[in-house]
Structures are given as C-alpha cells and as structure tokens.
Design brief:
alpha+beta, L,D-transpeptidase catalytic domain-like, 2 domains, five-stranded mixed sheet, 8 helices, 14 strands
Length: 323
C-alpha cells in the first residue's frame, strides 16, 4: 500500500529535521574550544580568588628534577610572588646536571626566560613553551641543542613532559599573564631543591660548582619572593648585582665589567596558619622518574643504563626514559 501525499511530506520533513540536528551536532563538535584557548577551570579560578591572585598577574616557574615537580608562583598586589600550585612532572630524560650538546637527551638546568612568541599552541606534544635553551650561559660554554620545552604527552627526549591536562592549565596561566601585560616570565630549572642539606648530599658531584651558582638564585627568591636579576659574564651566573656605569655584559664569555652586589631585602612570608596563602596545593599525578630507586638499582648492579634501569625494568616499574 503506497504512502499518501501527506505521509510523504511528513517523511521528508522528518528527514530534513534529522539532517539539521546531525549537522548542528557535527558543527558543535568541530567548534570545540582548542586546547590553547581553553579557559582556566572553575577550581583554578576559585583557588586564585582564595589566594588573592588575579589570573592576569605575573607568573614565575620553578622546576626540580630530582623531585619531578614544577611550581607555579603568582604575583599579588604587593609585588611579591606566592605559591599557587606544585605539579608533578610526568617525565624528563637524562640525569642531574646541565644539558651539554644536541642529542644527549639531557633536560637543561639554569635560568631561562619565556616570551609570548615561545608559546606553541600547535605542538605535536599537545601544548608547549620553549625554555630558550641555549641561554647566554649555555652559549658561553658552546653548548648546543634547541627546542627544549615544557610540553604535554608525558614523553621526553630532553624536555620536561607533563600530562596533557596539567600542561593545559600551566599554559593557560602563562597565556593570561601575557594578556595582563607580563612581557616574559622566568623559569628556574634546578637539579633538586637547593637546600643546604641537599647541597651537602651532592657535594661530590662534578656539577657542584655550577649548582652553587644556581643556589644563589634559589636563595634570592626564597628570601625575597621576587624574581632574581640574573646576568652572565666570565662564563658564570651573577645574581642580584648592578654593574658600575650601567655597563651590562653582552658576551657571556667576556670578563665581567665592574659590579657590586646589591643589598638583599629579606622578606618573611608569614601567612596566618590555615589561611589560603599558607596552603601549598600539590597536585597529585604521574611521575615516571624515581631517582632514588634508580640509584639503588644502579648500586646493586641491576641498572644497565645511565639512569640506573634497563628499559625493560623501567617499563615493568612504570618508568619511561627519553630517546
């Protein structure tokens, strides 16, 4: 039995309506906000508000290899920087010590500066920003390599790799700081938390002299909660100095112009116990490097790689190494 004209019209209208709905759904999917433009989460915005921080206020980042942690600090109205969050670094490659040459799979250490053009919204590792290696200090020693990043995807060949979700939040914090007028933010990449105790523990390292220079910047920030002024000359870092006559060094290999150490304005952060500023928010997440375990296996003779584990053992234990 054939369909009447009314039935045929209803069928056509139903098909047209269904097609319109499907088209709208496809359009909505295709218009999903890209990762680099996604707003900060409600949780992050709430924490910023609790700590009296603006999303557009300046940021500073500190990286600690041995602990596999990345900290984001935010400025408040008084010009001091306060802890916002500590994030787990999912993966990094190499060992403690600076990057020396292209292909050594070593994550860099030192004082780096990130400008807006170093942000990469189209990274093949989800999102990333370039640390700016080699900096003036690295170049003074003829160190090579490029495109050393903080990025997502939890894979590392000389970079600091986060999970995609965490790198999105860090990227958004940097994006908002640039939108607020910050021209560049500092990244301090340390081998470990540079306490006196940890320095004594590593006093026999070949990099101890280099790490003493990094500790000056670490201590300055700990004492003042302000980004240190860092210069390079005579193939060394100088922290918190002013050059006589304003003669800033232009070549990190050249002897240092006359300079004097500036007086440090020690500032004690004394938030009330239980206040939002006293809260150190530590994000839980995956860390694929465990240096303490790697060292134990290396000493026992079970480690066949420079990291103290074979790749097979690392895979079994949930660790991953850079290529």
């Amino acid at each position: 039995m054939g369909l009447s004209n009314d039935d045929m019209i209803c069928k056509r209208l139903f098909c047209v309506g269904l097609a319109a709905i499907l088209s709208a759904l496809v359009g909505a999917c295709s218009q999903e906000t890209p990762p680099h433009l996604r707003p900060l989460s409600k949780e992050a915005m709430h924490l910023l508000g609790k700590k009296g921080m603006s999303p557009q206020s300046p940021i500073l980042i500190r990286i600690f290899k041995e602990e596999s942690e990345l900290e984001v600090w935010k400025a408040r109205a008084d010009g001091r920087f306060y802890h916002f969050k500590t994030y787990p670094i999912c993966n990094w490659s190499g060992g403690l010590g600076p990057k020396l040459r292209e292909g050594d799979k070593q994550a860099p250490e030192g004082f780096y500066t990130v400008t807006q053009h170093q942000m990469n919204p189209n990274s093949k590792f989800h999102l990333s920003f370039n640390l700016g290696y080699p900096n003036a200090y690295d170049r003074a020693f003829g160190r090579t390599g490029d495109f050393l990043m903080v990025h997502g995807d939890c894979r590392s060949a000389g970079c600091y790799a986060m999970t995609d979700a965490l790198v999105e939040e860090i990227y958004a914090l940097a994006r908002e700081a640039f939108a607020g007028g910050q021209q560049a933010f500092q990244v301090h990449a340390f081998p470990f938390r540079m306490t006196d105790r940890n320095m004594r523990r590593h006093r026999n390292s070949q990099w101890y002299g280099f790490w003493r220079q990094l500790k000056e910047g670490y201590d300055y920030f700990e004492l003042t909660r302000r980004p240190p002024r860092v210069a390079v000359c005579g193939r060394r870092y100088l922290v918190n100095v002013s050059f006589v006559g304003g003669r800033e060094p232009r070549d990190g290999r050249a002897p240092c112009p006359p300079y004097r150490k500036e007086r440090i304005e020690v500032w004690a952060e004394r938030p009330l116990p239980g206040s939002p500023l006293a809260e150190r928010v530590v994000v839980r997440g995956r860390k694929m490097r465990n240096l303490a375990l790697e060292r134990r296996l290396d000493k026992s003779g079970n480690g066949a790689t420079r990291y103290g584990l074979t790749k097979a053992a690392g895979g079994f234990l949930g660790l991953q190494f850079g290529r």
